[in-house]
Amino acid sequence: MRSYGQYCSIARALDIVGDRWTLLVVRELMLQGPCRFTDLKKGLPGVAANLLSARLKELEAAGLLTREDAPPPVATALYALTEDGRALEPVLRALGLWGLRFMTEERPDDSFRARWLAYAPAWFTTDADPGAPPAVIQVVASGEPAVIEVRDGRIHSRTGRVTDPDLLLEGPPRAVLGLLTGVIDLELAQGLGLSVRGRRELLARLRPVPRD
Amino acid sequence: MRSYGQYCSIARALDIVGDRWTLLVVRELMLQGPCRFTDLKKGLPGVAANLLSARLKELEAAGLLTREDAPPPVATALYALTEDGRALEPVLRALGLWGLRFMTEERPDDSFRARWLAYAPAWFTTDADPGAPPAVIQVVASGEPAVIEVRDGRIHSRTGRVTDPDLLLEGPPRAVLGLLTGVIDLELAQGLGLSVRGRRELLARLRPVPRD
DNA sequence: CCGCATCCAACAAGATACTG
DNA sequence: CAGTATCTTGTTGGATGCGG
Q: What positions does the domain HTH hxlR-type occupy (chains A, B) (predicted)?
């Protein structure tokens, strides 16, 4: 990208991560951890291979990620964020929190990955009842499964399944995400196609962070 | 900008503010308050008039700013952020804090405005001695003046001059900014061309916020 | 398959000139 | 002053190819 040529830390940050796709590449590496070219491509539907390749080179040159040949079991290059790259987490958090306000708008053609939903409760909610015992919520949105754990007064999340969750939420991403982030209530979520099984009072423990 | 087409709040945020120049337009409106087309253009050296015009239209359509015909004394259109637009402040803060790490690199051709320096201590430092009496620092970087006030345990800033400051810092932007944000020490800043007059012990009150 | 490199049509950005 | 019109250039997305 062409530099803005301004002595301003916002402009200099954008000189590096302001290009199209760049912050989404960082998002994928932040959410997935070190991964291969193909994993990144799967997590970035719509990106052209040459462009992803270019972005990875730029990010490596800027010192935000490293490219390393993984040991035999993988036998291919792995991309991983450096400390400077991981330091972008507050940027992604701030952007993601601000962007929540647009998640109620329906856009049927949007692609979806469970990872994109899983980070939301972890980043944008806190445990309203830290003293209560741990609990596990299984989420399935658009067929993709994720697990939300409420434990030690914190919210953790990951993709995948768990046996015997305390609560099971299944439905379209809009309903699941809206409910988990407190944007819509249970009744409305069910109206959007959400099915609920288990201890629904657990939902009250997910307290949205203040939006400022 | 073409949408990323992903149901992810980060991607949706970038659908709206991910275009080139867009976040810098928001920065100017955030730092300057409501202003005219020309004021924006002056605060965005390098932007083409047609592009600025396009961005303003897009931001208005997205509900991030309003365009209003100002009353007689100004007699021209004023652009102002809406609440959704102002809600981007945490994004700009996070980006600006992350970008500080690149501000030590010298790029002689970068343009500079006092406003771009003034927000840094206000956003990225706190008053290490909240009980101490108020103090005023006059800063002049690259000929552009700004005022930093340390008061009520907080750091405020604005462009302009004040009579009889407690401390006067004058020098190239890199020296002034580095010193104010705690990236470099006084000795190094003086090596970079900073001149200091007054109560230099005031500098100890500017405590950098943790970088995570 | 993985990790790109190459090619091309469509689009966005930058510079400059111009108008109400 | 506050933009618009036009032109040129650069970037992107998408398809395809290709060695390891």
A: 8-107
Task: Mutate one of B9, B31, B212 to test the A interface: name it (highest A CB count within 10 A).
Answer: B9
Domain A114-208 has CATH 3.40.640.10: no
Provide the token pair at B23.
């976040």
How, if at all, do strands A167-171 and A135-141 pair?
parallel
Given its phi and psi angles, is residue B116 left (phi above 0), alpha (psi -120 to 50 degrees) or beta?
alpha
CATH 3.30.1050.10 domain position(s) in chain A: 114-208
CB A4 within 8 A of CB A14: yes
Residue A206 dihedral angles phi and psi, to the nearest 5°: -85, 100
The pTM of this model reads 0.95
A112 HSE (CA, 13 A, CB side) = 23
pLDDT in tens, B41-99: 999 999 999 999 999 999 999 999 999 876 666 668 899 999 999 999 999 999 999 99
**pLDDT tens digits along A63-108:** 999 998 766 665 688 999 999 999 999 999 999 999 999 999 999 9
Cβ distance A91 to B94 less than 8 Å, yes or no, reads yes
Task: Find which nucleotide's C1' atom is closest to A49's CA.
Answer: C4
CA distance A200 to B50: 53
Classify B32 as helix, strand or coil.
helix
**DSSP type of residue B1:** -
Q: Does domain B9-87 have CATH number 3.40.50.2300?
A: no
- Chain C nucleotides close to protein (CB under 7 A) are 1-7, 11-17
3-class SS at B65?
A: strand
Residues of chain B with CATH 1.10.10.10: 9-87
B160 alpha carbon, distance to own chain's centre: 14
3-state secondary structure chain A: CCCCCECCHHHHHHHHHCCCCHHHHHHHHHHHCCECHHHHHHHCCCCCHHHHHHHHHHHHHCCCEEEEECCCCCCCEEEEECHHHHCCHHHHHHHHHHHHHHCCCCCCCCECCHHHHHHHHHHHEEECCCCCCCEEEEEEECCEEEEEEEECCEEEEEECCCCCCCEEEEECHHHHHHHHCCCCCHHHHHHCCCEEEECHHHHHHEEECCCC
